[in-house]
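Protocol step 4 of 6: structure prediction from sequence.
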Amino acid sequence: MFKLIKWLLLLTVILGLASTAVVYGVLSLSLPALDGNGRSNAVVEPVKISRDVLGQAVINASSRNDAAYGLGYAHGQDRFFQMDLLRRNAAGELSELFGKAALGLDKKMRFHQLRKRSQIILQTLPEADKQLLKSYAQGVNEGLAQVGYSSFEYLLTGATQKPWQSEDSLLVIFSMYLDLQSATFERDQALIQIEQAYTKQMVDFLTQPSKYQAALDGTKLAPYSADIPTLPTQTQHAVKSIEANQERGSNNWAVTGVLTKTGAGMLSDDMHLSMAVPVIWYRTQLNYMQNGAPTQVTGVSLPGAPAIVVGTNNNIAWGFTNGYLDTADWIALNDESKTWQVDESIALPDGEVENYSLILSEYGPVKYINEKPYALSWAAHQPYAVNMQLLKLEQAKTVDDALAVASDVGIPVQNLMVVDSLGSAAWKNMGGIPARKAPSQLGVNADDYSALWQQNELQRPFVKNPQSGRLWTGNSRVVSAEDNARFGNGGYALGARSSQIRDRLFEKQTFAESDFYALQLDNQARFLMPWHTLLLKQLKVDKTKNQQYITALENWQQCACSTSTGYTLVKRYRDEVINILFSNMEDQLNKQQGTLKYVKRDLEPAVWQLINNKPDTWINPQFKSWDAQLHGAFNQTITKLTEQFGNKVQSWQWGKVNELVIEHPFAKQMPLLAKLLNMPTAQGFGDSYMPAVQGRSFGASQRFIAQPGHLEHAIMAIPGGQSGHPLSEFYRAGFSDYVEGKHTPLLPQELIHQIVIEPTQ
């Protein structure tokens, strides 16, 4: 019997090793070749595609079109499945990959008809842009063809790889509209529902300006001065947890040459996005000739598009944060409004087709909000939404050149921060902004609809070389109080992050790259200090019962540090206070297919007014008094932490509660693949409302710092590798440096691979 068991165990081990070998063998077939030679009729002169020790793609070409081909080739080799997801998500075509489970998401996307819009816009582009997109697409397809075998994602889904088309690159840009601006019209919908269920006064109360205002000109919006609205009689039910919409945005700041030792301007940019495997950005350097002169552009590209999104040409350096101007309105339709039905066909994997019908109007697609028809007018639906004008930044020599381009670029509106080697620094909104003059966060009557929606706004405020030598943005209001009335609030961040960045910049008189990097990693919890004071005072009412929590709070380190338990208690306590105060409102909105999710970031000023004034109608029916309500919030905090992380307070350290977990989408569905596909987990560092933004799968998708003309110390750190293939040497390259806060160089290091594509004779 013993020998039999021994042989069975041995057989199990052998079978396990054999199956592992088979898996790795199959995977290895789809590894791209990074060395060699090829030919293509898409290039005029030879194109070199090199990789450095991090896998950064270095493209050398004789023209911008040939460089686009080379970049497409590299993207096709390393990131095709990611690109496929981006285009399919924007177009509402994921069901063809994932079946009926994706139908709900596809229908949500088809509402915007972005595939059709991409096809229409493509036909209107200048011939030079069409040719560039064609070159890029051919590069993608030939890079993919070189691999020879489908990647494991297609083997698992049974789907086929469809060729890349020029219009798909426009869909990838549209995918960023969906990621960065959907919350704008979702927020407007919630505010319409709040107005209808409560009052306009309630809307004003919930969206009042905060004390955290950091506009570049220092102006403040007038504070809310009306009474606290009375909340209608509440019903008793279990407290609802109000989900917070991820704060898709970013930080950037700059100083003029007066504040650097080199005399050049210096830029910092870290874009905050959801993190997955592979990471969204792709390290790239393009080298090509333009009008007889060499051009070198280094930064990050978005797989699927032929441009450097954030980077430097050594004359200027530029970066973006999400603008959050009001780029969407819900138009309340009336009996005279013309509407018509359009049928969309959604393909499924087995050849079946799901039909989806939507209603259109002259103002945009129609949705019923509280049983009333509203049409969505959104910048992404307009002809100026998407184009290739971003590429003009590659040829800019000065800040003025970049500012001149800003109004023409077709991307989701961003805060462009730009510096140059001559010492200048500037800010301006870049991207599509509707020219209509009266944005609204509530419904707009159809009779008041402006034809200016069809035009892009060309007149925009900007700031260049301020007297202080400092510029900053962090998704809160940047424009003056006067300009705010013109450009509106599309869901601005509260301003705590921007304020902290601004204040840090005024603590020093000279800056180097290391100073900017330290500011990117600043996790001081200034925003939560009032909450810390409130909770500590509350707990000290019963010191004996609460001693372990009091000790944790007194040693909280005033930061979102990995070892801080006190930070966890304060952060979670704030969440539970908000849940208790607004649970009945959330319940009411849920009955109307609404939510406070997109308004939660606005609530801080209103919450403190409620805490300080303690109006009786805002006491949740579960509690008899305000003190009981606040104590109940802490009890709820402890209950939830215990359920999630056990009853040992030490296990509630922020590094564990906010652990960084960057997953491949397939690993979420098939946990057995997690070790192979995911990035290593890392202790949480940072949070919302501070420069070092980090959630469990969210945060700085890149950290970029540069002085044009002095790139030897420039930094580009990314939380993941270049390749989407789990067996690639570049799958996790650079991740550990990112987690450890090392200064990963922007410029390519030693080149270790090279492909040369010759023109077909």
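Step 5 (inspection) to follow. Residues 10-22 have pLDDT under 50 and may be disordered.
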